Amino acid sequence: MLEETFYRRLGRTGLHVSPICLGSDNFANPTSEDDSISIINCALDNGINMIDTADSYAAGRSEEIIGKFFQETGRRDSVILATKVYYPTGGKGINDRGTSRRHIIKACEDSLRRLKTDYIDIYQTHRVCMDTAPEETLGALTDLQRQGKIRYAGSTTSPSWKITESALLAEFRGLIRMVSEQIPYNLLDRRVENEILPAAASAGLAVFAWSPLAMGLLTGRYDSNKPETFDTPRYNRGGIYAERITPKAADAGQAFVRTAQEFGLKPAHLALLWVKDQPHITAPLCGPRTVDQLSDILPVMQMTLTDEMRHACDELVPPGSAVANFLNSAPWMKGKLL
Fold it and tell me: Does position 255 have pLDDT exceeding 70, yes or no?
């Protein structure tokens, strides 16, 4: 079990979370229900205390699996449960998406039903909805908190000005204040260090990093000299996923693998460790497909990034720069990497 000293405060709240948190995007797609439940048990047994999901993951099946776990094990109180609202899940109408009051209220009720719980610890907006006034979104979240259906609110993949706007609006209107921000962050895309991380730190937000392994690029999965390595489900899926996996990113990933080997570490361990110990980061989110994958990364929670490791990583991809585009799922990000 993880010692108490390794847990980290969740932003301005009194909660503490493990230095690595469990993501569930793989639950039901491709990980089976039984294996997903085994992963949750393994995580909790080894000190991970936060599970992050979303109503859109596997069209709601991820939430349903977590709900089944709670129902069968009675371990709901052991978990800081975070889920999200934004994308359409179930409904196909024009108003079955975004962060309007209508959609937030309905989506929350649906998530509570799937999760088989009375409350959500952190209810997050999955993306920024530029078409909805922020006071409408915060107002709906405030009502849900007052009804006891959510404890806290958070946001994901927000531009820095939206983080600041939300904090100021909450302060002056007496609305719920965001306590966390999720960002795409790994060694291959460090652009959030320029404005988003400082804005989150200024607002007192916990920061969770998604895709810390850069979709396998940092584990050496892709090699620009071996075209066959690009034949993966994520790459073949096309769209934003294929855009991230470029020969330039693959070359940087191969260089990172060599750096990890020089320090006697597995590439996945150094990639996670680098994110975990970056300034202002609360925890990386890891979504293992198997129990073995989860078991392999558990030791990273008690590792410390040395100055030598940090410098070597900075040499590969300097602070604030990027060789892969992991912000390409953000509607507000118009720029593309060359």
Answer: yes
The burial class, CB within 10 Å (0-12 / 13-18 / 19+), for 271 is buried
Average pLDDT along the chain: 96
> How large a percentage of the chain has pLDDT more than 90?
90
Query: Is the pLDDT reported for residue 171 higher than 70?
Result: yes
* Rg of the chain taking only CA atoms, in angstroms: 19
Residues 327 and 245: their CA atoms lie apart, in Å, by 13
For residue 142, give every residue at least 6 positions away whose Cβ sits within 8 Å of its Cβ, in sequence order, or none.
175, 176
pLDDT tens string 176-203:
999 999 999 999 999 999 999 999 999 9
State the catalytic residue, choosing from 7, 57, 119, 235.
57
Q: How far apart are CA 325 and CA 64, in angstroms?
A: 31
Residue 76: how many other CB atoms lie within 10 Å: 17
Could you confirm whether 57 is annotated as catalytic?
A: yes
Q: Quick check: helix, strand or coil at residue 175?
A: coil
DSSP state, residue 123: E
Whether 42 contacts 69, CB under 8 Å: no
Residue 269, H or E segment: helix 267-276
Structure tokens at 85: 């609202």
Q: What is the pLDDT of residues 270-301, one digit of tens each?
A: 999 999 999 999 999 999 999 999 999 999 99
How far are the Cα atoms of 52, 56, 183, 241, 333 from residue 327, in angstroms, in the given order? 19, 19, 9, 11, 7
Extract the tokens encoding 323: 């060789």
**CA geometry: angle 203, 206, 207, nearest 5 deg:** 105
Q: Which element (helix H / strand E) includes 121?
A: strand 120-125
Burial of 304 (0-12, 13-18, 19+ CB in 10 A): exposed
Threshold 0.90, pTM exceeds: yes
Mind listing the domains of the chain with CATH numbers? 11-216+274-303 (3.20.20.100)
Point out which residues pair with 264 in neighbouring strands: none
Q: Which amino acid is at 19?
A: P
Neighbours of 311 (CB within 10 A): 9
Q: Residue 291, exposed/middle/buried by CB under 10 A (0-12, 13-18, 19+)?
A: middle
Burial class of 85 by CB neighbour count within 10 A (0 to 12, 13 to 18, 19+): buried
